[in-house]
Design goal:
The protein is α+β, with helices and mostly antiparallel strands. It has 11 helices and 13 strands.
């Protein structure tokens, strides 16, 4: 690995059009899993000027109505804060195109007789962890998320009155000796109220960055870009169409790790796009937390309808310590956690309505709360140490 370099990650806020779509899709997942923990959901959302469109495949053993789904979608938009002429939680047109899950898929996925529950699709999934932050996340993405969370908190609390929901950030850090040491470039583009003073907005964003970044990391004024195109009054779904699953790098590791390509939001946990990505993060984080390595990437692969993973790959990026090898970890991990779809769902308690909060500010690097973000726990450390 290089020791001295620059690296950049971006984030987008809960009000970004694609994130609005992600949160609506996960609100539908939560609604149906709240009724039937074994519900099957694949919900895609499109949002544009005063319009919300849902499509996909579902199966739920308990009754629900289209009105319940619509209410979940509108409540999500209301919580985010959209009450604009071009996109309003109450006034937007709503279109519903959800239908039953394919019987061909169901027969391969469902558990029956001596057949274990199979993966909902083929695919490759990656998990990653590093020791750059207390949350074992890449520092560039960590601070990109944190500054937007700060803006959102100030908007919701009305600490400031000029912010609107849509915003993006980008953080470039300088690394020396493989460690982040300072910010090189900082970017925020945020929607704002009509007539907002741009100098006032810039000073506010600079203050937010200064509060979020470690002391001494702020770059010079010429290296901080706030709304570099100028006025940003038209935003959200009115300014740009949003679709589920278009922010997968924001959702994961900010480009610091490979990505298998599958999105998470709108999918129930039988879909290994989601559940296997969660378990690989869980395993990688526990490996780094156990001081076996400073960086860890894990890959799993699956075939549709097949329970056991086809492959398991561990990469410690040359940072391994305490004599632990990637090959040894590849032997040990399946002994500690069963890596079938059902084994993952059971170990991480994924059959609960826990998903809407995952759909903004990243699925990883979050604080475990009850069943939420269970894949962020480090409760496997002692077992790993004993096994290795």
């Amino acid at each position: 690995m290089r020791s001295n370099y620059m690296f950049t990650s971006e984030s987008v806020s809960e009000g970004h059009p694609d994130k609005v779509a992600d949160q609506i899709s996960d609100a539908v997942v939560d609604l149906l899993i709240g009724k039937d923990p074994e519900a099957r959901v694949a919900c895609e959302t499109l949002v544009t000027t005063n319009r919300i469109v849902l499509s996909g495949e579902i199966r739920c053993s308990k009754p629900f109505t289209q009105d319940e789904v619509e209410n979940a979608a509108r409540e999500t938009v209301r919580r985010i804060g959209y009450e604009q002429s071009g996109f309003h939680w109450r006034d937007a047109a709503f279109e519903y195109y959800l239908h039953g899950q394919s019987d061909d898929i169901a027969q391969g996925v469902d558990e029956s007789g001596n057949k274990d529950e199979g993966a909902g699709d083929q695919g490759i999934m990656f998990g990653f962890a590093c020791d750059e932050t207390p949350d074992y996340m890449p520092a560039t993405l960590y601070y990109s998320h944190r500054v937007l969370e700060r803006l959102a908190a100030d908007r919701h609390s009305r600490a400031v009155d000029f912010l609107e929901p849509d915003s993006k950030s980008q953080v470039t850090l300088g690394f020396e000796g493989g460690r982040p040491v300072r910010a090189i470039k900082l970017v925020v583009s945020t929607q704002h109220s009509a007539g907002c003073d741009q100098a006032k907005l810039r000073d506010y964003v600079k203050g937010a960055f200064a509060d979020v970044l470690p002391d001494g990391w702020m770059p010079g004024d010429d290296d901080i870009f706030v709304n570099p195109t100028g006025i940003f009054e038209i935003g959200g779904p009115d300014g740009d169409t949003g679709l589920t699953g278009r922010k997968i790098i924001v959702d994961t590791y900010g480009g610091a790790s490979p990505h298998g390509g599958g999105a998470f939001s709108g999918k129930d946990p039988t879909k290994v796009d989601r559940s296997a990505a969660y378990i690989t993060r869980y395993l990688a984080k526990n490996i780094v937390a156990a001081d076996f390595a400073k960086r860890c990437t894990i890959q799993l692969s699956y075939a549709i309808g097949v329970a056991e993973p086809l492959s398991l790959y561990v990469d410690l990026h040359g940072t391994e310590t305490n004599g632990v090898s990637a090959a040894r970890l590849e032997q040990v991990l399946p002994e500690l956690v069963r890596l079938t779809p059902k084994g993952i769902r059971t170990h991480l308690a994924l059959n609960h309505p826990i998903y809407e909060p995952t759909a903004s500010y990243g699925h990883f690097g979050r604080k475990p709360e009850g069943n939420r973000f269970s894949w962020e726990k480090t409760d496997l450390v002692d077992q790993l140490k004993q096994a290795v």
